[in-house]
Amino acid sequence: MTVTVRPLADDELPAAWELGRLAFGGSSTAPGWALRPLPGVLRLGAFDERGRLVGKATDTGHEQWWAGRAVATADVGGVAVLPEHRGGGVARALLADLLARGRERGAAVSALFPTVSAVYRRLGWEVVGGLQRAELDTASLPSAPVPGVAVRPGEPADLAVVDALYETLARPRAGLLTRRGGAFDLPHEGRWPDGVDGLTVAEQDGVPTGVLVYERGTGYGPEARLTVHDLLAVTPEAARALVGVLAGWRTVTRTVRVPLLAGDAVSGVLPLERSPEGPGAAFMHRPVDVVRAVADRGWPGHVRGRVAFTLLDPVVTENTGPWELELADGAGELRRPDREPDLTLDVRGFAQLYCGITTGRAAALAGLVSGPGDPSALDLLAAGPPARLLDYF
């Protein structure tokens, strides 16, 4: 079957919502934002010869933080194909078009949460992490008073505090969304966003240093659970105070689910050894434009070096070919070399190295690096911190 991929017209958005509902389940009533254009968001449709919508995908309009720099992305969400056309190349056509459009507008990298990872692996994405969370007995949480920290109930206006503290924590890390653009720019109009029931702010000397955003859920028996959407602290005192607030829920909610950001102040307070919860949804990554992916992010300032490799990309042909990577003074450059490299790197291996979750030799053992050269030379590409995500999309 031949399909035509193009941006969806406004009057086609209800049909796209129905296609997504058929694929993923959910309410038959679409939220308002799903039925109108969103600045920065690209919704693509795949149409058969009769003009019928058979697939859809969305470029979310996100940016990601990479060591202090905001990097443009072609992050992917909402990929759905009619069941009668699955396995027929519709998803490939959609995603190849999405990557090409993303590259044209300046996107450097792409992340997504797969329903079936094999589909996306064939197109160059690779798993680089998972949403981390803990599910804890509320009674196990420490609750000692924390001198010098005041906690207060928040209101919708304090969502700006959430944004500011999140950026402080996210900016120096790798992979976290900037929470700007696309659906993140939807106004809350003085109300709690969907799924938020309350917010607690921790302050020290009148300055916000932590915030807790939660969804209460239903019931107060053994099955009751409090779901935390954000638990952010920029001081260890604020972390202890907010975990103490969570402990206070023990009288009506036996369980609390908390998102985790490795290495932050909160992780040093929670009794994580008591959590049976493992990693959440896996996320995948790939470069859209390898030159931009290297140049636009921050790199560790103490790392210097060069490595040459031939990159293989099954979809973005501009990425394929010989490259030389050079890092120095916190910046990176990728350019064509003057000699034939002795290492060949699959784009999936590039994704894992770029996201800091593997080494050259480990990638070789996984079949993602080949050639007579020493694969450990590719550790230069893995010099940054491991990529994280806190937001599902």
From TrEMBL:
Molecular-function annotations in GO: aminoglycoside N-acetyltransferase activity
Pfam family, one: Acetyltransf_17
Keyword vocabulary terms for this entry: Transferase
Name of the protein described by the UniProt record: Predicted acetyltransferase
Domain N-acetyltransferase: start-end pairs: 3-147
PANTHER family, per database record: N-ACETYLTRANSFERASE EIS (PTHR37817:SF1)
SUPFAM superfamilies: Acyl-CoA N-acyltransferases (Nat) (SSF55729), SCP-like (SSF55718)
A biological process term (GO) from this entry: aminoglycoside antibiotic catabolic process
